[in-house]
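FORM 12-B: Structure-to-Sequence Request
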């Protein structure tokens, strides 16, 4: 029985990692709370985006919750193990700005600290692996 559970978890994790990214154009609706400085610890900060267009992949939501790794560091300037999941050209995230985001599921792709003010919202969380203006 334990072997079946472990195999199921392995297959579920493999599916999460193998899932094709979803690309959207969206507007950052707000920046909730205050982002911690990056000298304390690394984290993913969750933003809410209004989906304006799905460029590739499948997403039916009108709004999406998106985690960004260390958002105080410009995209493309991250130099640690998350560099491959922090691409793009955004220097600073600004509320009401439009971005193109490449998304993968947050679960299974980040296991560290998550700063998430949307704790009452049970929507899936995504990780932005690339964000461009």
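FORM 12-B RESPONSE
SEQUENCE OUT:
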């Amino acid at each position: 029985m334990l072997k079946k559970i472990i195999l199921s978890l392995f297959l579920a994790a493999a599916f999460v990692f193998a899932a094709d990214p979803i690309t959207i154009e969206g507007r950052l609706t707000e920046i909730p709370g205050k982002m911690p400085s990056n000298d304390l610890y690394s984290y993913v900060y969750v933003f809410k985006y209004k989906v304006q267009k799905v460029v590739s992949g499948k997403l039916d939501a009108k709004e999406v919750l998106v985690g960004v790794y260390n958002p105080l560091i410009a995209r493309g300037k991250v130099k640690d193990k998350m560099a491959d999941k922090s691409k793009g050209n955004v220097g600073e995230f600004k509320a009401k700005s439009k971005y193109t985001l490449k998304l993968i599921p947050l679960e299974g792709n980040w296991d560290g600290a998550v700063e998430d003010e949307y704790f009452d919202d049970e929507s899936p969380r995504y990780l932005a692996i690339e964000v461009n203006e």
